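Researcher: Please translate sequence to structure tokens.
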Amino acid sequence: MIRIILATLLAATPALAASGPFFSLANTDFVVLLAFILFVGILLYAKVPARLTSALDARAVQIRADLDEAKALREEAQSILASYERKQKDVQAQADRIVATAREEAMTAAAEAKEELKASITRRLAAAEDRIASAEAAALRAVREQAVSVAVAAAGDLLAKQMTAEGAGAMIEASIKEVGERLH
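Model: Translation complete:
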């Protein structure tokens, strides 16, 4: 600080601007020099340079703290961003797995439905074939029964036309005899 004062005193030498002796109160340069020295002295007495230095140091410390806090906040933000990006990737992967699983389940359900439909069609065809076979058998039985009825009726009519009373008696006797032999 003393160096600054000495440099200021040397720089404040008269530059041939005022007339007369330099160390006179009539010389304006000397009065300005005295006022400046007095001003610098008051500043030094009031410890303004120390206060300025401490204020600047405090401000530098505050700025350094703000920068450190900003750096910490930036790192925290980056870690949170990375965390959210990981979570987003995990959620996307989980969504992809859910979609794939749903797609597989849909395919499986479709295949099972197709198999069940085939089995149902096969069962219905078998049931229809059984009904057709049953209907055919019933129709054949009905036709045979009808044929037997017609044949019995025709045979009865034929026998009745061809049979005489003597022939009928002989047939009855032969039938009784046959039944008797079978029973005994």
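Researcher: Any highlights?
Model: The mean pLDDT is 86.
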